[in-house]
């Protein structure tokens, strides 16, 4: 067995996560990673590279759908309500 070359850095980062500021950053990161996981799930399998334009279009389409899902979950405010 051997110690990882960046063990000092990793230990410092683990220690930072235990502080209130570190916990706040971690909560923010979890939200972003969760959203990216949803996009990846809805997008499906990646396509071969020659179809770059279609991949970009598909990514944008899925991002719009995800954003609409997020908006639909928001509580209505100021008497405004999404059409159903």
Give a written overview of the molecule.
- This protein is mainly α.
- Helices cover 68% and strands 0% of the residues.
- It has three helices and no strands.
- It has helices at 7-17, 20-43, 52-73.
- Helix 2 (20-43) crosses helix 3 (52-73).
- The mean pLDDT is 82.
Task: Reconstruct the topology from this structure.
Layout lengths: L6 H11 L2 H24 L8 H22 L11
Helix pairs in contact: 2-3
The tally of beta strands, per DSSP, is 0
Q: Specify the structural class.
A: mainly alpha
N-to-C CA distance: 60 Å
Largest sheet features: none
If you average the pLDDT, what whole number results? 82
**Helix content percent band:** 55-70%
List low-confidence stretches: none
Estimated share of beta-strand residues: under 5%
Number of helices: 3
Radius of gyration from CA coordinates: 20 Å
Order of helices and strands, N to C?
Answer: HHH
Q: What is the approximate shape?
A: flat
């Amino acid at each position: 067995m051997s110690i990882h070359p960046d063990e000092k850095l990793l230990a410092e980062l683990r220690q930072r996560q235990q502080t209130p500021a570190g916990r706040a950053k971690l909560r923010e990161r979890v939200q972003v990673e969760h959203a990216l996981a949803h996009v990846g799930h809805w997008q499906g399998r990646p396509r071969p590279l020659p179809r770059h334009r279609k991949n970009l279009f598909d990514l944008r389409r899925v991002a719009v759908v995800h954003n609409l899902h997020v908006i639909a979950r928001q509580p209505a405010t100021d008497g405004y309500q999404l059409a159903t």
